[in-house]
Each structure stands twice: as structure tokens, then as C-alpha cells.
Design brief:
Layout: E1 2-14, E2 19-31, H1 33-39, H2 52-61, H3 74-90, H4 99-108, H5 121-132, H6 136-146, H7 153-160, H8 169-183, E3 199-205, H9 207-210, H10 213-216, H11 222-232, E4 233-239, H12 243-256, H13 265-275, E5 280-289, H14 291-305, H15 327-348, E6 350-353, E7 358-360
Helix pairs in contact: 2-3, 4-5, 8-15, 12-13, 14-15
């Protein structure tokens, strides 16, 4: 079964802040073969009759490592073929690059290019074209985005063992211990910010990494889905009410000042996403909990991801029995919470908030 992607928008108004947010949500629905063909741009109509073998051969000849072409993946591959053919007109002026010159220029622009072969040349030319359009600052930001992150040993272990989810009992015990302490009246006391169950945690995701992951996940290996989700996280937070949107408000204010240099990586990431004509994905998770439980969940996820991989300014705070756990247990909890967050994301779909969608009063 394949899917068609479409988007809907909804309006969120913050009267106190005088700001209106327009949220674009990406959906995917099953489609039959005829419907799949109709969703393609008319510009790809000439490729509709490609059989699986011909389509795959042409993609490979253009430098794209296509896998088996099936009813499920054919539409995706047809779109990719159209994109590659469209790109060829833009890169025609660079086709004369020889392999060594092409690789040298890519490396000089900060891209760690490997050997350029007949198979990879088209991909390398595409990358060169993209990099030449960027300023030196933008190229550095792109390099950081594309560089592979290294997480805590506990989280890294899950990326090396795709079957780790077959037995989650040890992880569940840690979360159960956390929930039990903060939900049992006998253990409740006056914790930080009170005992009202009005808090939640949230993640800010980079759509340049997710690329509408909920729609693509069914055609991907589970390890790749997991790794893609983790790599897209650039901020972990705890909040109440509209707290996640305050980051967007701050970014708007900064942008209206002319986007001066800032050391705030969160603000830089948000604005960079907007300037790429995309929207920040705000994922709300673990609702209706007291503040210290939210702080502990936030801290555990940061611990698992590692501070250098997110834009948070400080490490999180652990409360209750979790504050006495070893680092390994904290990272295991964080890993499990991130896994649950990914499943929430895959179920709810991708929602983006972009600069053009935001009105300030």
C-alpha cells in the first residue's frame, strides 16, 4: 500500500501575547495505483510508464542508490527521478568538472566528499550546486546539521541493536518508579512549582531532518526511522500552556531586529529553518504531570541525547528517587522516553510552524 501526502492548517491565537500561529499539519492517506499516478506532477507524466527495472536503472545512472521498485515505492522513485532530471539543467554548467576538481571544491566548501565515481558524480554535483548557493555561515550551519551526532552509550547501543525494543521491561520499570513516586498521594509533598498536574514536556524537531518522517516510516528500516527521529531533535523542554511557543516568539523578536549574531543555538536553529521555507515541528509529549516529574523527564532525555547535541542552555534537573540513580539508569529512562516520543510523532503526524504562518500583534 502507498500513501498520498496532503496538508491542512489550523489557527492558534494567543491573545495575551497578541500572536496568531498557523499550524500546517502533514497527513498521509492510502491510495490505489491510479490515485498515486494522479498525485504526480504533470511534469512527470512522461515517466509514468517506466517499468520497475528501467526506473531503477535510470535513477542509479543519475547517482541515486535506488532500492527495489515496488508498488509501494514507485511513486516516490518517480518523484525522485523528476527532481534529479530537473537538477541536471541547473548543474549543466558544472558537468565538465573532473572527479578530482569536484571533490577538492566540495571539501573546500566544508563537505567531506568521498571518491567521485561515475555513479556518485551526479550526487556530488548536486551537493556542489546547493553549497554554492549558500553563504559561508550557512554552509557551516548545514555542515553541523549533516554531521552525525554521538549520543550517550545507552542510546548509542539502541542504534546498533535493532531488536532492543523486543524487551523493554528494564526501561518500563524505571518509568514506573518515576510515575509511582509523583502520582501517589502518600509520597506527595510541596515540590518545586507545586503539585498541580498541568505540566508536560516537548521536543523541537528540525523538518530538514524528519522530511515528513511519519509518512515515510512504513517504507524505511526501523533503525533508520529511529536514527532520523533522534537526529532531528534540537531542543528538549518542559512547560505549561503555551510555553513551547515562547521560543518562536523570541525568534520572531530576534528576526525583526534584523537577525543579529546570537549565541543562542535554539534561536539560530529556528530562524534557519524558517529561512529554508519550512516550519519548526513542536511535539508535545507526556501531558498532565506535576512540574518536577516534567523536569525529570526533560533531564533524562537531555542526558540520553547529550548536551552537545541539543540547544538547551543547561543540563536538566532530576527529582525524587531519580536524582539518586546512576547515570546509566538516567540515560536508559531518557532513551525509553525518546522512543515513546517517536511513536507519538509517528502516530500524530508532522506539524510545522513557519515564519510566514505567524502574525504578531
Amino acid at each position: 500500500m502507498s500513501f498520498v501526502t496532503y496538508s491542512t492548517s489550523c489557527k492558534h491565537e494567543d491573545k495575551d501575547e497578541g500572536i496568531v500561529l498557523y499550524e500546517k499539519r502533514l497527513h498521509s492517506v492510502p491510495s490505489n495505483t491510479n490515485e498515486r499516478v494522479q498525485t504526480l506532477s504533470s511534469k512527470t507524466s512522461s515517466t509514468i510508464n517506466y517499468n520497475a527495472t528501467t526506473l531503477r536503472k535510470e535513477l542509479i545512472s543519475l547517482g541515486f542508490p535506488a532500492g527495489p521498485v515496488t508498488d509501494t515505492t514507485k511513486t516516490v522513485y518517480l518523484n525522485k527521478l523528476y527532481q534529479l532530471k530537473k537538477l541536471s539543467t541547473k548543474t549543466s554548467s558544472t558537468i565538465s568538472y573532473d572527479a578530482n576538481t569536484l571533490r577538492t571544491e566540495l571539501i573546500s566548501l566544508g563537505f567531506p566528499a568521498g571518491p567521485v565515481t561515475d555513479t556518485t558524480k551526479r550526487v556530488h554535483l548536486k551537493k556542489l550546486y546547493e553549497l554554492k548557493k549558500l553563504s559561508s555561515t550557512e554552509r557551516e550551519e548545514r555542515r553541523k546539521i549533516e554531521s552525525k551526532k554521538v549520543y550517550s552509550p545507552e542510546l548509542e547501543a539502541t542504534l546498533k541493536n535493532s531488536s532492543w525494543t523486543t524487551n523493554l521491561s528494564a526501561y518500563k520499570l524505571l518509568e514506573d518508579a518515576l510515575v509511582k513516586q509523583f502520582s501517589s498521594p502518600s509520597t506527595m509533598r510541596n515540590f518545586r512549582e507545586g503539585n498541580s498536574k498541568s505540566s508536560f514536556t516537548y521536543l523541537l524537531l528540525d523538518p530538514r531532518k524528519t522530511e515528513n518522517l511519519p509518512c515515510r516510516a512504513d517504507t524505511m528500516d526501523s533503525k533508520d526511522v529511529w536514527e532520523t527521529f533522534l537526529s532531528s531533535i534540537f531542543y528538549v523542554g518542559k512547560g505549561k500552556k503555551n510555553r513551547p511557543y515562547s521560543h518562536l516568539y523570541d525568534a520572531i523578536a530576534h528576526y525583526k531586529q534584523g537577525n543579529p549574531p546570537t549565541t543562542d543555538q535554539k534561536i539560530k536553529s529556528i530562524i534557519d529553518i524558517w529561512e529554508n521555507k519550512l516550519g519548526v515541528v513542536v511535539l508535545h509529549i507526556f501531558h498532565n504531570i506535576i512540574p518536577v516529574e516534567a523536569y525529570t523527564r526533560e533531564a533524562a532525555m537531555i542526558e540520553a541525547l547529550r548536551m552537545e547535541n541539543v540547544a538547551n542552555m543547561k543540563i536538566g534537573d532530576f527529582y525524587g528517587t531519580a536524582s539518586m540513580w546512576k547515570r546509566k539508569e538516567k540515560c536508559m529512562l531518557g532513551t525509553y522516553l525518546l522512543y515513546k516520543a517517536m511513536n507519538i510523532f509517528l502516530q500524530e503526524g508532522e506539524r510545522q510552524l513557519s515564519l510566514s504562518d505567524i502574525e504578531c500583534g
